[in-house]
Amino acid sequence: MHLAINLENGDLAIFTNEKCSYAKASTVYINDILNGRLAQVRVEENSTSYFGITPNFIEAMNGKFENTTVIIMGCDGLITQSMAKAFIQRGAKAHMGWDDFVTPQYVDTATTKLLQHLVLEKQTIPETVASTTHEVGNDPDNRGTLHYYP
Question: What is the pLDDT of residues 122-135, one digit of tens each?
């Protein structure tokens, strides 16, 4: 399942768990949609639509992500740099994610290793990515590769 998706304009949108509805899109979220902060996203062409947050949403948020490492645990989290740049502009120190599809089983295993190296072993972000990739490789089914930005 996609947790992030590459939109037609090249930006990335992160799925929310809120199903897209005309009522909410035309009333509650109209300004966010018109200003490119929310997009309609779906896993497959004919599947259920959800609201997805775009880099514009991150840029418009209140508050900061000071000294935070953002990890997109799903497909396409770093297929483009637009979302990563938005988080960095809001104070995050790094953004991590995969550049393609990843299976749930693979990404669960890889993220567990990633967090072990990053949090428990206190490795740097480049060391964490290298260690995780060395241990679990790329997604064997889809070839998604772990990256970080900047």
Answer: 999 999 999 999 99
